[in-house]
Specification:
The protein is mainly α. About 60% of the residues lie in helices and about 0% in strands.
């Protein structure tokens, strides 16, 4: 959410897709947590915006977006 802050729903979906694609790519770690925390991959992880976004994001919207992305994990 912090990386897609201020983006449309499409922008949020694109960030989710980027993370999922990286978990499947051999040049990146294979877990979501490791991809997000990979050095210099997502600036919001390192600049403190992630903690702020966690307090303010729309849980219902994020759950729906993540659920929609699940079929792509197969």
């Amino acid at each position: 959410m912090a990386e897609a802050e201020g983006e449309s729903e499409l922008g949020k979906r694109l960030v989710i897709d980027t993370v999922l694609n990286r978990t499947a790519h051999p040049d990146f770690p294979n877990t979501i947590q490791e991809v997000i925390s990979y050095p210099n991959a997502f600036t919001s992880y390192w600049d403190g915006r992630m903690e702020e976004a966690e307090r303010n994001y729309d849980l219902e919207q994020m759950a729906r977006l993540k659920y929609d992305a699940l079929p792509r994990l197969e």
